[in-house]
Write a structure and sequence with these properties.
Strand order of the largest sheet: 6-3-4-9-10
Helix content: 25-40%
Distance between the termini: 79 Å
Strand content: 5-15%
Largest sheet: 5 strands, mixed
Order of helices and strands: HHEHEHHHEEHEHEEEEEH
Oligomer: single chain
Number of strands: 10
Structural class: alpha+beta
Shape: globular
Number of domains: 1
Length: about 350
């Protein structure tokens, strides 16, 4: 008869180490796959958010006969419209199941006034990409306190944006220049309507979106721009004095303008060049000409909403001139398939 001890034999140390090693290998193999699956789901939701934004834009156009402007002036007018005007996103609220919130907005007052500040704190899930890092301020007086923000910005095209000259208003969304379907002369499938942008965060990529640098325009033109001119402009920005650190880029979906709800297609997607404003006297954050770039937390590119409602993933290596031409609604050089 076997002894009791022989029948209760357990794992040896070597066997236990082998089991642990096998488990570690399985985790190492499976964890990246799980992470990839999660990111794929987040990316799919991000694409769908942009798709719904495109549907809202076209619904607005059907109702109003034009797309919303990148900045809509205050109902009462005034000299401070530049930085107090309302975003295209604000005008689209009734078309993204936010009619109740839209009815609470005081369009006779600025975006920085009274109850409108509190309205900016509302989190609109359809305006946020689940792949981005959430930035929650610890200050209850900060608009970012509850994680609000906007990851999808309408496109001003290859433009410095703030020029009120209609000739320079080349994008699908412009400052005080309304655009209709009939104005998309290159075809709605050949113009960028909106693209991703990232929220400010503490990492290197987030810093590119967090800080507004001052620069000198140099040879950079009001619309389009060579890679050399853009590089030179970026070179005058890095490390210089920043504009109004309290501006909190990309965190106020109610506010119109670059630095919040508008991007340009001057620099390629995810460019390592910082967002820059052209130095001007008395500028408040994004109220001067400048360059704001489409960025995302997805690997290798950004999701982009096209004028016909399609959503495409544009890679970081996409040809710069083609990217700029896609930003223009009527440069007479449609890109075709891309």
């Amino acid at each position: 008869m076997r002894s009791l001890s022989s029948r209760q034999r357990g794992f040896t140390l070597i066997e236990l180490l082998v089991v642990i090693a096998i488990i570690a290998v399985l985790v190492a193999i499976l964890l990246p796959a799980v992470q990839q699956a999660r990111e794929a789901a987040r990316a799919s939701q991000c694409r769908n958010n942009l798709k719904q934004l495109g549907i809202a834009m076209h619904s607005y156009h059907e109702a109003m006969g034009m797309f919303p402007k990148a900045i809509s002036e205050l109902a009462t007018g005034g000299a401070q419209d530049l930085y107090r005007g309302f975003s295209a996103h604000a005008m689209l609220l009734p078309y993204v199941d936010q009619a109740g919130l839209y009815n609470r907005v005081d369009f006779s007052s600025g975006t920085d006034s009274g109850g409108n500040v509190q309205i900016s704190r509302n989190v609109i899930p359809g305006f946020l990409c689940p792949s981005d890092l959430k930035y929650n301020s610890t200050s209850a007086t900060d608009v970012r306190y509850n994680g609000s923000g906007v990851n999808y910005a309408v496109s001003a095209g290859p433009s410095l944006f703030w020029s009120i000259n209609a000739t320079d208003a080349v994008g699908m969304f412009n400052f005080r220049v309304p655009v209709r379907m009939s104005d998309l002369l290159d075809g709605s499938s050949n113009v960028i309507a909106a693209a991703e942008q990232i929220l400010p965060a503490g990492d290197a990529k987030g810093k590119l979106a967090e800080t507004i640098y001052l620069g000198t325009q140099g040879s950079l033109t009001a619309s389009f721009g060579t890679d050399a001119a853009l590089q030179a402009f970026a070179g005058t920005c890095t490390g210089t004095t920043t504009m109004n650190a309290s501006y909190n880029e990309n965190t106020k979906w109610l506010n119109g303008g670059m630095g919040q709800t508008v991007v340009a297609t001057l620099n390629p997607p995810n460019s390592n060049r910082p967002n820059c404003i052209i130095s001007c006297s008395g500028c408040w954050a994004g109220t001067g000409n400048g360059v704001w770039t489409a960025r995302s937390r997805h690997a290798g590119g950004v999701h982009t909403l096209i004028g016909d409602g399609a959503v495409k993933f544009i890679s970081d290596s996409f040809d710069l001139l083609t990217w700029q031409r896609l930003g223009s609604r009527a440069d007479g050089k449609p890109v075709g398939e891309f």
